[in-house]
Amino acid sequence: MPGHAEIFGIGILSWVTWLPAIGSLIILFFNREKNDRIRWFANVWIVICFLVSIPLVTGLFSMGGLIRGGPGYDRALAGLQFIEDHDWIPLIGARYTLGIDGLALVLIMLTTLLGVISVVCSWSYIREKGREKEYYVVLLLLQSGMLGAFVSADLFLFFIFWEVMLVPMYFLIGIWGGKNRLYSAIKFFLYTLVGSVVMLLAVLKLYFIFPDVVRAQRPQVEATARQIAVSQETGQVNDRMLNLALDAMRRVDDRNLPSGYVSSTFNITALTSIGPHIKAVFGLSLVIWLFIGFALSFAIKVPMFPFHTWLPDAHYDAPTAGSVILAGVLLKMGTYGFMRFSLPIFPDAAADPSVRKVMITLSIIGIIYGALVAMAQKDVKKLIAYSSVSHLGFVMLGLFALNPSGINGAVMQMINHGISTGALFLLAGILYERRHTYEIAEFGGLASVMPIFSTIFLIVTLSSLGLPLTNNFIGEFLTLRGAFEARVLWGVLATTGVILGAAYMLWLYQRVFFGPVTNPANEKLKDLDRRELWQFAPLIFLIFWIGVYPDPVLSYVRPQTNTVVGLVQPDYFRVGPSAERNLAESVPSEPTAPAHSQSSEPDARAK
Amino acid sequence: MLALLQQTSDFQIISRETVQLIMPEVILTVFGCAALVLDVMLPRALKKVVAWVSLSGVGLSLVSLGILYPNLVNNQSARVGFFEMILVDDYAVVFKLMFLIGAAISIILSIKYLDEEGEQHGEYYSLILFSVVGMMFMASAVDLLSLFISLELMAISVYILVGYLKRDRKSNEAAMKYFLLGAFSSGVLLYGMSMVYGLTGSTNLAKIAAAIPNVLKIDVVKTMTERSVMDMRYLLLLSMVFMAAGMFFKIAAVPFHMWAPDAYEGAPTSITAFMSVGVKAASFAMFGRLFLYGLPDLRATIAGNAADSVPSLPGWAVLLGVISAITIVWGNLGALTQNNLKRLLAYSSISHAGYTLLGLIAGNQTGYIGVVLYLFIYTIMNLGIFGCIIALKRRGISGDNINDLNGLIKKAPWLTVMMTIFLLSLGGIPPTAGFIGKFYLFGGLIETGNPWLARLAILAVVMTVVSLYYYLRFVKHMYIEEETETTPLAPSRVLNWTLSVAAVVIVLIGVYPKWFIDISQRAARSQALKTYSYKAEEAEQPLELPGSMGAPSR
User: Fold this and answer.
1) Which helix (H) or strand (E) segment is A401 a member of?
2) Is the ipTM beyond the 0.90 threshold?
3) ∠ CA B544-B550-B554, rounded to 5°
4) Chain B within 8 Å of A260 (Cβ-Cβ)?
5) For residue B431, cis peptide bond before it (omega within 30 degrees of 0)
6) pLDDT at residue A582 in the model
7) CA distance B250 to B215
């Protein structure tokens, strides 16, 4: 049974998305002078937001008529769950459709958790900086924007959230940031905006060719829709999602559609279903152009190698909370976009050897270049920022390995990077609060002054460089396994990134924490207080938990991974290493439909 | 008197029905005259009453619009009057609604502005009303004569308004520039119109449209010795270019934009606001009428005759495409370096004219909806941003310089938030209305599937990123820079409420645009009725621009 829960008749995904925004509206009505009250309210509110997102995993008990609970996310199903669907702009077929798949679920949980941490970690920082009311308003709005992008199952809605996110982040960096904040904020904003407006055109093009593709290849498109809705592992069909997509396709030939209504849809599942058939109707070049339109936007957000220059600036000048969210969630938007849109909607482009080569090359350059530049940094925060470039290179490498272990690894890396790098930025933020500098040379020998702090820093450092039993090991292992499976050379090159990663992280640790205390300013630094310590607790817990037993996370993601691989490499599960098992398991529960999908797929391609 | 006229002749000039057609305009005219009379009668201290009277005139006109066209119109109720000079259809009604809303907001802005300037006079408001009458006729006129007369009514009123601050040299200069160039462009427009009349034998747009295929026919007479080609297409194209040039001037499209920055800067800010939305929207209304209703056949490529080696000629879509590309680029780049807010917004409004043209170029329903919708949204958001600037005006401080915004968030948080909303909307960032408008305009271009139009769309979206740079400069000054002067603002409650409503509407359209798209769609459909019949053909032979990469795949 797919996950489902309603509170006061409103679906839980809407609550998860809008609750932070409601909080920021409430804060608007607080008296500007009552800073303590605002701070307490924001902290409590963000915790509530986190608690509300928990039923997505655990399910919710029904409590009377007002809270109608249901099971949590069902891992046996592929595709969207917790679906909410309402009319919105009927003229263009945009609907308020929410729904999450396993990938989105994992990222939502990460977002709500990091949301709490970012609000809590600002406690003393913002007291010092001032303008608390605006700060919390912006922070909560940002939270809503990010969650909205993850829950949208309608491309129009997604795009709106995608752009909305930029504005609060701009303010966060621009108002509360460091020395160069104006430059960094506008650079961040314009850079990402270029990507998204180009994506808007690609979205429009996709939207306008949708009817043509459906009309030309209706049976094949419907078969693909069924293929997406079926879990490769269990063979269960996600009826609700499938029906929504089929409804959206029916609109194409709806004779009752009033004149002036566009007979297309923004439903992401429906758009994904036409993906493999665009090539047959419009040719490969259009598919590649559309892919580029989407990929440019996502690549800037990730950021991939030549588009990464905004990231160090933005990270360096953002306040700690901003950095945590930027590293933890905003960058994941890009990789999420690749996995959710670019790969499944344009499989022909993604599997195209030259496109793939370009993407992989850029990823590997990102991995090595990011690591080398990180090594050369004289500044803690910039070093972490460049390490992000390197880590996200791994994610992209895993995605474009186009096999299950690569993509699973990529998703694991997304989560891990959020946890580890988020923690690193928190730690750097604490250093900054103590000393008001990020300069590595200013520190040294902190291990004796701040023992708890240096212990936590060590754990996070080791996690970040991928020590076995920590989270990053799992992710990097899977990613590299995928890369080796795709092509040995890619794996070999990427592995150097792991070595370099260990080098710059350990060197950083050595310079900051070991040796004698050379700088007298460091002699009396305060160790972590209880609030600061507690904000690390969940992150440390996750580092070890994922490191030791990653399956709970992986099991949410696997159905999505299989769907993506099934779309991009339709032959993978048939001739791949475990072909027999997969074929045996994908015997459909619904006899006709998926079988049809299996058989019609090669036909469509042959044309 | 009216009854008398009706009895005396079967041939009724003024019947009840025809008067109903122009009732909103009649009401405004009456109030405009009343404002003039009141101005003389009232003592200096009570001059503000004139403003409220004018505002109630606009309100009454709105009400009459609502009563006469309650079902904001299905096309059956489209009616023609005054010897087919006036056509009231959805298109006209929606535009009239737009003008009246714009006028109402402008009058409210003016009250505060003129208070600060100490120039509260009645004729100001009556001139606004008269120019609105002109605009409203522009939207419903379907005859070259009525179009031109209403254009002039609007233009002359606005010339005077621009120079309204008689002691301000900048204002005088602006009025002079605007008037001279405006008169010149009217002349060019009129020249084009007269040539069209000569070619088609009618001033009625519908008849012109019907006659144009005949004009386009190429007669080739071959005798034994020579071959003579009767080709009137060049003449027709020339007249089209003349008319387009006149319209480009009014909407301030590059290269006819030279007057705009100066006129916008010099004019009283309230008039800048009024001009930037009212005049522009009305000119677009007229542009649409002239080109979609009168010259639909000149839109796409005009077929030649290959056998006799007569070349095909590009239609007005190409002309508009080139102009809009230049306008978007020039407007946005020009705004980058401005420090005077009014000048900056002048350039920004130039670029917005370019964006709006995109809808006409696309030539499909999405594009036409985009034009109407965008103008509607633009009216509200641009008046909003100018309203915010006027709200900054206080004794000794013009509020025009970008440094006057410094640290505004501390002085007036709500005003700052509203201004941010308007700016983001101008930049097209969701969830504001501007995004929905741009979505339709770009959507229209993409829908055609023409590769050249796709390139135009790419250019346009990239330029919106540039525009965000200067819109965010406002934001930077308001939120991030420290206060440079501490004179308190002089808030006006009416102005604040108006702006609040406008800001809420902007967000509302952004979040739930259904109603607005609905009315824009009706307007677009009634206007495109003529072009509708062409649509089927267009699908088969899509608009071809010179050098296009062949027919698109669709």
Assistant:
1) none
2) no
3) 85
4) yes
5) yes
6) 46
7) 28
